[in-house]
Amino acid sequence: MSAGVLNQEQILEMIKEVPSQIKWAQSTVSTWDQIDASAIDLPLGKTYWKMDASLRARQDGDVSDLILKHGGKEFTLTGDTVLERGQTYLFKLPWTLDLHEHICARATAKSSVGRLDALVRLVADKEKEFETVGMKKTCNIYLQVLPNTFKLIVRPGMVLSQLRFMRGLEHHCTVSREMLDFEEDPALVNKAGIRVQGHPSVGDNESILLHLDLSDDELGFAGFVAKKDTDLPPIDPSKEKEYDPNLYWDSVQKIEGEDSVKIEKKRFYIFRSKERFRLPPHLAVDCRAMSESLGDIRIHYAGFAHPFFGTGREPDNGAPLIFEVRCYESNTILHDNTALAKVFFRRMASPALKPERKDVYSKQELKLSKCFKDWT
After folding, report:
1. pLDDT tens-digit map of 66-105
2. Do 4-170 and 171-347 come out as alike in CATH topology?
3. Candidates 3.30.428.10, 2.130.10.10, 2.70.40.10, 2.40.290.10; CATH matching 171-347
């Protein structure tokens, strides 16, 4: 096996081998149901805590020690539990990782949850950073959840996050901007489906910048903004086309005569990238905020795009990625083509198999979470 992101078969081998690198406390994963082309879903367990503050472990400590130290109040997750806005929750995931010498992992929130303005981050024993598990680590893993704009409905087994495994460190798996030029079928294209090289991030030639696209979508506007109403009904992120988007969102119009928008303080926005992706079986994408704080806005965007993302559509011009933007203490003007995030192309250790379950975002344009009906 070469350096790269592990595919479905390789993840399943990690689960089935003895001793297993991924121990699932409640059942045995034996099908593709929980595994995407380059990551595995992390369903919630039955134990969670309400916390007074965000926390992460230290290199010499376990998460359970921090829960005791900082007085987390324990609850049992049963049925449909409502997570309140502004409250930090910590869920113990029913997994234990026992990674081999050359295997590490990175997590990210599922797209459907990130687009609801919920901060969802993996916390692991003896890991000082969110969302990471280092090589040769044996640890319990937890999920920290902070709903900001909407109340959420959760239950045992619901998936809010996913975990990607890599053989080698991230830089061992990275495909540089120049190397992408040798892809026979371009992975990065414009709206016409024509290859683009992309712009490198300053001081980082391995990443490519993502720029804001404020051109009107087919719906006739540039983005979405969550409504100010704080007493909206809670949302179940596992649903598909369940909720009326007009109840929860407004459209974002450009400033008259300008290619720019004004975003208001303490509100949450959905925009899209100019860059479009058409990923082959041997490439995956890791998306990061260029800087999590750009002036007085915060880009929540951080996530995965799996092999086959943006393919199988007409016209064959790929799919953009979505920006999740929160404005804080002052109104801010954003201009078309502003760089808001960066992406890393990661090679797969072996090409992925096309998943049986459909990717509801692979053919997206400007799109809300899958739990909302189509905008009318």
Report:
1. 898 888 899 999 888 999 999 999 999 998 999 999 999 9
2. yes
3. 2.70.40.10
Output the pLDDT for position 297: 66
Task: Measure the CA–CA gap between 340 and 338, rounded to whole angstroms.
Answer: 6
- CB–CB of 224/193 below 8 Å? no
Listed in sequence order, the residues at least 6 apart from 332 whose beta carbon sits closer than 8 Å to its beta carbon are 262, 263, 265, 295, 296, 297
Return the CATH fold of 4-170. Answer: Deoxyuridine 5'-Triphosphate Nucleotidohydrolase; Chain A (2.70.40)
Task: Supply 72's token pair.
Answer: 């987390």
In sequence order, the 6+-apart residues with CB closer than 8 A to the CB of 103 are 6, 14, 21, 135, 165, 166, 167
C-beta separation of 227 from 289 below 8 A:
no
End-to-end CA separation in angstroms for the chain? 48
The C-alpha atoms of residue 170 and residue 150 are separated, in whole angstroms, by 33
Q: Which residues contact 297 (CB under 8 A, 6 or more apart)?
A: 263, 325, 326, 327, 328, 332, 334
Calculate the average pLDDT of the chain.
Answer: 90
Which three-class secondary structure state does DSSP give residue 277? Answer: strand
Q: What is the pLDDT of residues 266-315, one digit of tens each?
A: 999 999 999 999 999 999 999 987 665 455 567 765 589 999 999 988 88
Residue position matching structure tokens 């391995």? 206
Say which residue the tokens 């297993």 belong to: 20
pLDDT-flagged residues of the chain (< 50): 28-31, 293
Residue 187 identity: A
